User: Fold this.
Amino acid sequence: MMSKNILIIEDNADIAHLLSVNLRGKHMQVDHAVDGIEGLKKALTGGYQLVILDLMLPGMDGMDVCREMRNKKNYTPVLMLTAKTTELDRVLGLEVGADDYLTKPFSIPELVARVNAILRRSEQYLATPAAETTEKLQYGDLCVNADNRTVFLGDSKIELTAKEFDLLWHFASNPGRVFTRSQLLSSVWGYGHDGYEHTVNSHINRLRAKIESDPAVPEYVMTVWGVGYKFSSDLQNSPA
Assistant:
């Protein structure tokens, strides 16, 4: 199995060293940048399977690094590290395109588990045969295209983050099927840890804000009270 190349963008030398030692112990290649400007330059080379990105950085903060990566069409998975604990900070990190986040202080076993989960999801996506990814799902005005990862609502293009798209595609591919938050964490994020259901909630709230005419009365992503969520079974898939 080929070694994975990981970029750590972290200005705290002790944390960077701790991460590097543990990831190298898992047979991963590790590169390091100490500020946002250097980190962005390295990230844009496209030579990494994962970027571990601190939120608070000199030069350019992690939000801007992640945002600029996505603006440059660089979709290398990003695991964001943050010392902040508010839900708003975490949601903003996900909004600009981070695939996952960890709040400091975190345990090394959990970080390694998150890294492995993200890498596993990336491998599965890359290994998917082209014939399986050239799919389009059309439900009423909502069109979800897996080939170019675009979403349209009528004639309007809907801008989704990578994880929002994955979540919507998972729902739309299984209309009427009810998923618990833990099942969605496992299927879409690649891990299932108790206590991280708010990650699912945040993504669904933001997804609804983008695709539903009235997020409080959704037509597509429905809440099944006491269980989880499902994609409406009242809509028929009618791809053009």
Observations:
- Residues 5-127 form a domain with the Rossmann fold fold (CATH 3.40.50.2300).
